[in-house]
Design goal:
- The chain is an alpha+beta fold.
- It is about 35% helix and about 30% strand.
- The chain contains five helices and eight strands, in the order ααβαββββββααβ.
- The strands form two sheets. It has a six-stranded antiparallel beta sheet with strand order 5-4-3-2-1-8.
- Helix 2 crosses helix 5.
- The longest helix is centred in the last third of the chain and has 22 residues.
- It is globular.
Length: about 170
């Protein structure tokens, strides 16, 4: 798969650039195989944290977990001097049940496909709309390459245990 940072977290690297309109300058990644020891045997992790310094000076953090006991879990938070933006796990349904002093919420989506299903259709619609209007689709090939560069540098950091500068 290329590792967690290249097949799972890469989507959040792309989202990070889109949310901030900024470019990453430095990345530091740590991770471990906390759920499935077999993941470590192939040199990968199932849980990771990536800290990113953006060109503007903003600090960002991406937490990824391949498995949790309560469902699929990924989050991205971007902090700045004026506030924070966060993308986090979503409940499978927006239903809460109130019983006595307890609130019981619907669980999380079991996996990645269930989590992104609706946004995938919207992305395809936006792509088709751009093509029909003769506009450049977004995200672009350059966006994809920059997300891949960030994933490569984060993987390098994970292996070395050191922060890695990002050039270009």
């Amino acid at each position: 798969s290329g590792g967690q940072l290249k097949d799972q977290t890469i989507h959040f690297f792309d989202l990070l650039r889109w949310i901030t309109g900024d470019e990453a300058q430095e990345v530091y990644a740590i991770g471990a195989a906390l759920v499935d020891p077999k993941v470590a045997e192939v040199g990968d992790v199932d849980t990771s944290i990536v800290a990113i310094r953006m060109a503007s000076g903003a600090l960002c953090q991406i937490d990824s977990a391949r498995r949790t006991g309560y469902g699929y879990d990924e989050r991205i938070q971007v902090f700045g001097s004026k506030g924070m933006i966060e993308s986090r796990r979503q409940r499978a349904r927006g239903v809460s049940r109130y019983v006595g002093n307890n609130v019981i919420d619907e669980g999380l989506n079991a996996g990645w496909f269930e989590r992104i299903e609706q946004s995938y259709y919207r992305i395809l619609d936006a792509f088709a709309d751009a093509l029909s209007k003769g506009a450049d689709p977004s995200p672009s090939l350059e966006d994809g390459l920059k997300a891949q560069l960030l994933a490569d540098k984060a993987s390098e950091s994970l292996k070395s245990g050191q922060p890695v500068k990002i050039e270009g």
